[in-house]
Amino acid sequence: xANETARNIGPVILLGPPGAGKGTQSxxxxxxxxxPQISTGDLxxxxxxxxxALGLQARSIMARGELVPDELxxxxxxxxxxxxxxxxxxxxxxxxxxxxxxxxxxxxxxxxVFDKSKKCPPVVIQLLVDYNQLLLRLTxxxxxxxxxxxxxxxxxxxxxxxxxDVDGSKLLIREDDREELISGRLxxxxxxxRRVADYYRAQGRLVAINADRSVGEVTAHIFSVxxxxxxxxx
Length: 234
Ligand code: AP5
Hints:
Largest sheet: 5 strands, parallel
Helix content: 40-55%
Number of helices: 8
CATH topology of one domain: Rossmann fold
Bound molecules: BIS(adenosine)-5'-pentaphosphate
Distance between the termini: 14 Å
Number of strands: 7
Order of helices and strands: EHEHHHEHEHEEHEH
Structural class: alpha/beta
């Protein structure tokens, strides 16, 4: 069997609505394949925390649960994908989110990132989850500010109320997980990001999987899709 942390994996794109489990599953992919997670939500939140010009522009947009304009996204994504740790592949969590971003990414991957002789086409996995389950996942989500571990007070609670099992830090609620914002985020997904799934479906690249199962079952399914996509490494 190929060494999963040495072979080329190529881009793995996780699509799905807020709460579908993109972040949760990205961490499993990182652990198994040794490729980095590129979460555009995390990149934007880092920019906000650091008070950069991008962060100042993104802050109010994200607080309303809307999408940040495409033109603001391209620079941060391009900069991150050009870093050395992306050469064997990467998992994209939260990008592309509009058909414009999907077209931009295809053009970018054509010309950058990979040595042409080793280029792997992206594997695009869409996580399908029932609407009511998404509401439970988003209203119950908590994260550890120290180690980044995700919990859910309804579905995957910590052992001790509101504290991280690993380091005991007090768990945080994400600013955009307030109930009044959640339906707006899910609507933004319906209106914009579903078109991204259509874009990849039309190219025969979309693999839709049932993500309304346990974390472990979804992870096993994702690993099988990645391994079948590129069995011996690219
Ligand atoms: P972003 O940070 O990308 O958030 P999102 O897409 O709204 O997705 P989430 O992080 O909410 O959900 P997830 O699918 O990662 O689920 P998770 O694994 O955490 O984006 C935030 C904002 O940034 C956007 O609204 C937008 O403004 C902006 N933005 C980002 N990218 C952009 C772009 N490309 N263009 C424009 N704007 C952009 O899981 C959720 C919960 O469920 C957790 O509690 C978890 O423990 C639990 N859970 C997960 N899987 C399971 C399971 N199988 N069973 C039970 N519980 C589970």
